[in-house]
Amino acid sequence: SFPTRRSSDLYSTVTPEQERLERQRQLPFHMHINLELLECVYLTCSMLLEIPLLAQTGSSPDIRKKIISKTFRRMLEYTERQVFQGPPENTRDHVMQAAKALASGDWRKCGDLISKIAIWDLLGADKEKVKTMLAEQIQEEGLRTYLFTYAPYYDTLSIATLSGMFEMDAKKIAAIVSKMISHEELAAALDQVNDAIVFRKGVELSRLQSQVI
């Protein structure tokens, strides 16, 4: 007579690791990504795009109002309405407080808040590389936000002053400013002799004119 085989023995050749990998293959590729990490990337990218845009439209009434991320704007408006804000507890809190810091010109605090988000640990070996890239991008967008916000109050601004404020090489700052000028984001000119930005003052619009536009 042949020996009987228990049903549990049928799966004895499959290890738990092989079974886990097999289940992963059955999921769509996008479901392999951690949703919290996905939200963190989305909100961080939205912050880097929206905060300079808000500063630009806020200081230039003649620029047509546009929105890149309605979701981010709603979250930011909700955060700004809060009377009391404690320490950030989750990814969303970290990004919203970082966005407020960037808008107020505190790029160091913004970078620190973004760097402290725990979900970046899921990036593994690439974590530090991504954090370094984000720190550089925050510096650049902090510079752009500052120029959009305070351009109306300056006649000239030294490149060396900006270099000290944002801890960036003067040549890199000059390149960023040149790009802003060429894209007509900044009404200014570079004075290469004195290493300064010379701002052009347009005709100020009345409140009624601004509302009509």
Summarize the amount of helix as a percent range.
55-70%
- Shape type: elongated
Subunit arrangement of the protein: single chain
User: How many helical stretches?
Assistant: 9
Enumerate the spans where pLDDT stays under 50 for 5 or more consecutive residues. 4-9, 205-213
Content-based structural category: mainly alpha
Spatial arrangement of strands, main beta sheet: 1-3-2
Average pLDDT figure: 84
Largest sheet: 3 strands, antiparallel
| Rg, alpha carbons | 25 Å
Give the H and E element order: HHHHHHEHHEEH
* Strand segment tally: 3
* End-to-end separation: 93 Å
Strand content bin: 5-15%
Characterization of the model:
The chain starts with 15 loop residues before the first helix and ends with a helix. The chain has 213 residues and is mainly α. The longest helix has 25 residues. Helix 5 packs antiparallel against helix 6. It is built from 9 helices and 3 strands, in the order ααααααβααββα.
